[in-house]
Amino acid sequence: MKPLLERLNPRRSLAAAIGWTLIALFFAGAYLSSVLVGSLARARLEEQTGALYQQYALQVSDALDEHLYDRLQSLRAMADVFANAAADEKPDRQRALLERWKASLPGLAWMVFADGAGKVVASAGRYEEGEGVREREWFGEGRQRGWIGDVGPAHLAPVGAASPSDDTTPMIELATPIRNSDNALVGVIGARLSWDWATKLETSLTKALKSGHAVESLVVDSRGVVLIGPATLVGTNVGVPDNRTRGAVGHLVRRWTDGEEYVGGYAMSDGVEAFPGLGWTVWVREPTVTAFASARALEHQIFAGLTVIGLIGAVLGVAATSRLTRGLTNITRSADDIRAGRASALVVPAGSDEAARIGESLRMLVDGLQRERASLEALNADLDARVAARTREVERMSEENKYAAVVRERLRMARDLHDTLAHSMMALLTEIRVLRKLIDTNPAALREELANAEAAAREGLREARAAITALRQDAVRDIGLGASLAQLLKRFEDRKGLAVLFDSDKDADALADSRAEALYRIAEEALRNVDRHAHATRVVASARVRHRAVAGADGAAVLEISIADDGVGFDVDTPRPGHFGLRGMREQAELIGARLRVSSGPQRGTAVTIEMPV
């Protein structure tokens, strides 16, 4: 299981990284393609469905206008009958004639014949004979012309009430004048179409669409109030189309007041012949959820299909990449064997491609490092022998303890050459590990890392030369302790890029004897520890002569040198086998009669203080 996971880890396998990249690209392409095709399909469906429902709305609107016009024409025919014959008949005869006419016209709630003064002469429902109707709208309009009344706001308020009155139930009133052969007004015939007539007509026309979808139609008056439609919308204002021209048609997708989005078509009343219509707008609509279901299904199908194709392509791409990167894989395994000690030479694949050239460069680098390592080991052995011999010689010299301390410090700096070269080798080994990882992750960066390895070797050589030069110079005796420490800290700041603050007084600056040299070496070792272990960002140092009160005397002058950092710190009481830096600093301090204090703790930085009586 673990080998399989490693092969699928893009950080450890170039083929896996390419495969995962291909999969991501294919998924993104499949998604974008499906969205694009789905959008195009939706736009196409919107155009087709909207145009279809626009045509349906026009048919319903024309049917409503034609039915209203037919009722008005029937009323005019009745008026002609009354004008030519029935006007002189008795009320019983006139009433019977109205009853028969009302029964022959479905949807009429009542009919009435009123004379020119507005007095009911005969009635088939609603009014009593002799009742005055002069103030009624239908009578006033009917005296002038053939008239069809619109549904007013008052008639919509009680829709759905338990017992609506005859005056408040939604209805359409019609009226036409009765004129004799001399064109004199004889009276007015009025009638009322029940609202059930309009509702049943709209319902029958909508069912005739047979679209197979959740299609519904609405009839909206000229003010945008719903007359016929879903119960939740009847009586509400849904607005009117922007194009209010008589007979205007169109289609669009909009979110209605019920909160749902619909695709629909509309048609405004165009009237019939002399009848201009009532200004109603008929809407035929369908929820976009069902209208565009086929577009969403197509989008999902395209995404699924492209995803399958993408996965197949990714598998093939990984297989091809594995074949092409086999040389790099072999180089990686060979480098792992060298690191584990199972091999001593890098195996270079045959050929002249990039993998072969990278392998040859790495082989040359590894061979060179191995030779340098052997030379360094021989040099270290010789250096250790010389250091041991010199140390024995110095120990035999007991003329002056202070001079012995200075010589021991110079010998310690000679041993530091060993640490410098070892540090450089560690840097080189680190670069080799980076190169090995780059073979899997970023082969293009190998050239840059090879340059870094060369720079690490050059830096080690520079530090070794700087250490040798320091052995030959004695800046403390030339310029004094304070100035020497200032130069040391300045070089440290420039080389490491840390923030360094240093302060000294004139008494400390004046010290330039052998004890000052020992103090300088201790400060040098403290800064070396900051560089190697502290991971600090700031160093604060000082060198001052202080006067402390002593019983029976004016005071004792004490030189205090302090070097503090804000690094990771350490546990002072924990033994560290193989590390002699602090031990050597204490020994040198004891030789010159000074006292060394080290204050530190994990994540609390480190402060080194040397106090010496002057």
List the helices and strands and how they pair.
Blueprint: H1 2-8, H2 14-84, H3 91-104, E1 108-115, E2 120-124, H4 137-142, E3 147-148, H5 153-156, E4 171-179, E5 185-194, H6 195-207, E6 216-220, E7 226-228, E8 249-255, E9 261-268, E10 281-287, H7 288-291, H8 293-324, H9 326-340, H10 354-396, H11 401-441, H12 446-472, H13 475-479, H14 481-496, E11 499-504, H15 506-510, H16 514-534, E12 538-548, E13 556-565, H17 581-591, E14 595-600, E15 606-613
Parallel strand pairs: 11-12
Antiparallel strand pairs: 1-2, 1-5, 3-4, 4-5, 6-7, 6-10, 8-9, 9-10, 12-13, 13-15, 14-15
Helix pairs in contact: 2-6, 2-8, 9-11, 10-11, 11-12, 11-16, 14-16, 16-17
Report on this structure:
- By secondary structure, this protein is an alpha+beta fold.
- The chain has 3 domains: 1-322, Beta-Lactamase; 325-473; 481-614, 2-Layer Sandwich (Heat Shock Protein 90).
- The protein is 55% helix and 17% strand.
- It has helices spanning 2-8, 14-84, 91-104, 137-142, 153-156, 195-207, 288-291, 293-324, 326-340, 354-396, 401-441, 446-472, 475-479, 481-496, 506-510, 514-534, 581-591, and strands at 108-115, 120-124, 147-148, 171-179, 185-194, 216-220, 226-228, 249-255, 261-268, 281-287, 499-504, 538-548, 556-565, 595-600, 606-613.
- Strands 2-1-5-4-3 form a 5-stranded antiparallel sheet. It has a 5-stranded antiparallel sheet with strand order 7-6-10-9-8. Strands 11-12-13-15-14 form a 5-stranded mixed sheet.
- A hairpin with a 7-residue loop joins β12 and β13.
- α2 (14-84) crosses α6, α11 packs antiparallel against α12 and α14 runs parallel beside α16 (514-534).
- The radius of gyration is 53 Å and the shape is elongated.
